[in-house]
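Observation: inputs received (chain + pyridoxal-5'-phosphate).
Thought: call the complex predictor directly.
Action: predict_structure
Action Input:
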Amino acid sequence: MGGYNPGSHAIQAHNAPTGAFFFDERSVSMEKRYVYLDHSATTAIHPDVLEAMMPYLTDEYGNPNSLHRYGQRAQRAIEKARRQVAAVLNCSPREIAFTGCGTESDNLAIRGVAFALRDKGRHIITTPIEHKAVLQTVKQLEEHFGFEVTYLPVDEYGRVSVDDVARALRPDTILVSVMYANNEIGTIQPIADIGALCRERGVVFHTDAVQAGGYLPLDVDALNVDLMALSGHKFHAPKGVGVLYVRRRTPWISMMTGGGQEHGMRSGTQNVAGIVGLGAAIEIAHTDREAKNARLRAMRDHLVGSILEQVDDVQLTGHPTERLPGHASFVVSNVDADSLLLGLDLEGVAASSGSACSSGAITPSHVLSAIGATKREAMSALRLTLGDDNTEEEVAYAAEAVPRVIQRLRQYART
Ligand code: PLP
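Observation:
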């Protein structure tokens, strides 16, 4: 076992004023690293994003809805961020509303279409591997508001087939919601093809693009998307700010009523600093995106290759190629997921598992269950997600540390 002192470097990283983007500038030995490989959960604020936000956390505190100059400056900052988002989505700024998070965007998208079209039909199509932000929303519509939900089948990699969407469509179908990329297994869905089918059949199409936001093309015309949800903290903006895109003339009503902010799409005084940060972050994320993705993919493939080579009874989950560039996910047999995460934390690797923890009880991952994993397998998931702020050296460290921790835990279990 290496001489890693779990406290020291983590504290150093926490106190570093410039955030994880400066990990590689620190003179710490390989053994003392703390490597953050949980970018699907959240990301560090990019230094340039923080710099853009700072005025709106200090002197520029005006309410963007006030008429005086403080208000006008805040409003101008929001409109600039809206243009930055619209440029990446290739849409009109008026089709963008800033929200409080990805969950809120999914809620507003789905419920807004359902309520607008409830007299036309009450059938919604989605997948069993969506995030709970989508699953719980359609479940509530089903249990309390008389809607009917069809869950599409997914293959062993978690992919939906366009033919299955076509088969599931009915005259009373009002909405199809399929995520762009999965948070637990990284699989990317054929969104553009599903969107094209929905358009042909006159059905509204929503995609939860929260995990895709920083990595995949977001052109809503090319993707044939009518509504899209994004979340800032997944691509180096702060927590507490999201995006809802709603295509013009989509039958949709706002479920957040009040003062009519955000063109009436989402009432409530805006999180100005967060919005400014999101605008800067989306621009940064989509500049040289493919080159950054190629680097992430190379590091990810090294990590995956190393783990599969060194450890028996480990399986990669999700699609082997059609997956998010920095995303690696596994089922690790005969290892308790919590022990593995704690063991990795002690060895200086921040990872996550696919199992959701609710009310203290670990439940098997609904995503892994949907792709055919046994209950045991669905409770032994490991997710390692890389970001632009990871260095090759950090990934090399993790590629050595992860197999070591798994082997040690298995050895303990046997003795
Ligand atoms: N959708 C997906 C696919 C996610 O991965 C997440 C968060 O992990 C969300 C929605 C919710 O986003 P937020 O944390 O901004 O509410």
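Thought: report the result.
Final Answer: Residues 392-414 form the longest helix (23 residues). Residues 101-103, 106, 131, 133, 179, 183, 208, 210-211, 231, 242 surround pyridoxal-5'-phosphate (CB under 6 Å).
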